[in-house]
């Protein structure tokens, strides 16, 4: 059955983009060879991508919908210069894993807990800086801006900015669309489904309401094959008594279930031509049953794990909720347009992680007298809430001078907790050492709570002078003032003699000005050459580790400073003979790199500064039509590495990462390709076929000197295909994702880091590969109205 569906979809797609394209082109030699351009607002003015004087890519919402893009990972892999660590649905909201131009030093396995440092790539939902990974529903377009963007956007960035622009309510039309999807993922025992709907309702001639909703339910594909059977208290069963090492195991098939609910309501009011207001509220909740991450090799009993097996001895569910409220106002002042965005969001979640392998491989289980049936659970939470105001004044008048002036204010509260438990240890201790029962207080052996308050204020702007219709120069500046406060609590409550709750506080502040310079020249009718030098900045913060008491750390761990980049870029873009081209050379100098890590004594989650790096390379893209078929080709070369050793803030002779080490997560070579073709049959049915592919070369799992983390990850390629039949009132799309079922590994928990250790009583394994979504076959029915 699978082979039949796969062959049908691929055959239809390839035949449409190839043989039918050539045949129709022969019949119509004067066929249109122009390329449709996406209008963007990256420069805070509406412009075609080709008229923006730096390297930007845009993907229209129509293209996202037609290709039935499943998630942000699939979307961003189609954009040259962008790479993503694919952690699946379970960790999609915890940390931002998007990388642009190789600016990353964090290990691919980070993501279970909220790290201290801000991500190098910022993301926006409309005009709100927020990393939310909302479902890709009712999207107008996605803009990918490479390089620092602090002179045009309130939230600064090091590597670039991703903007998700949602569709606005339309004042003059009633309409919408409903969709239903059924899909089957390789390895899964069930069928997943999704239901989506959007309706646009005019309210008179000056207002409109737009409502969007989505439900997604997927049965999972990862089998947790040797989890402990638990009693009513959540403790591993002891079938031969609590002092016996015997345990009972069971298997849970397709454990990584996915349940996502998304909704958005937007109310637009335009009481006059000069005033436009939109009030919007969006909310998403995720309930995930486990990891889409698989274990290789054998377990402690000598059994070989299957293709989609996970060796954890416990289930690892997660949940999260994110909500966003925004009021966006546009006021036409005549000489300029004033735009205000007032927003607030609340993003929080929790998860359970298997930590037993980490305990076993670090020898920690001896600290618990080799307690039998070890099951170490890390229960983690994260929270991110903020109130934000961003205001901009953009000139409208004709003349040689254009300007953008803006102000930004953000009050953000971040939180992260971890409560670790060795389930059943207290019960076993009481039976094994009754005379010392009072020494062990509970199963909880680690308590951690970090709270951070950030206040960010900034003024930013750009001034452009047009020397002629073809030559212009732009200067930009950003001044910011940041304040941060951090509070940390930690305790090791398992043993009475070790319990010593610790609280620490620390405050920091920083202010600075950043600059940008750009010159561009229009050559020919549709050609643009440009060069840019821009500075990027990422705020520092307070780690707030204790310096006195039982859990004292060196005072030099108490804070971390900002890191900065200088981005040099030169490029060409334009249209020639119906071919759109875009190529850019870049060189990025990165100083005082922020590395997310832990303190050496007691494992506080901290960020540190260390060393320098540089990234250089080429981004290139071609788009056009060949005999009626539309194609896109992209290539990225990235050479990113440390240019000096990185040491901990306490110094020492041994670096944590060495000069010349490749920065992790970003491939040296990446290629994207896409083809699509439409043809109308004699009965009026429109057929559209699409094929897309992505290839990336080898990457590194980490930059650290540790061989347990810094391992190579193999190259891979992922191919997708779809075929759509559009009838008078509805359409049907048959799609196949990851046709050749590539693993697509973008991160690895190695065996030496978290693997099995039967000598210590741990027969499971925490080692795992972060794989891409396996081959997925689906059918979507769309009905617009």
Automatic annotation (TrEMBL):
Membrane topology term: Multi-pass membrane protein
Keywords, ordered alphabetically: Cell outer membrane, Ion transport, Iron, Iron transport, Membrane, Receptor, Signal, TonB box, Transmembrane, Transmembrane beta strand, Transport
PROSITE patterns: TONB_DEPENDENT_REC_3
Positions of the TonB-dependent receptor-like beta-barrel domain: 298-739
Signal peptide positions on this chain: 1-23
Residues annotated as domain TonB-dependent receptor plug: 50-161
InterPro entries: Beta-barrel_TonB, Beta-barrel_TonB_sf, Plug_dom, TonB-dep_rcpt-like
Localization annotation: Cell outer membrane
Domain of life: Bacteria
Transmembrane stretches, start-end: none
Recorded family membership: Belongs to the TonB-dependent receptor family.
PANTHER family: FERRICHROME IRON RECEPTOR-RELATED, TONB-DEPENDENT OUTER MEMBRANE RECEPTOR
Name under which the protein is recorded: TonB-dependent receptor
Provenance organism: Phenylobacterium ferrooxidans
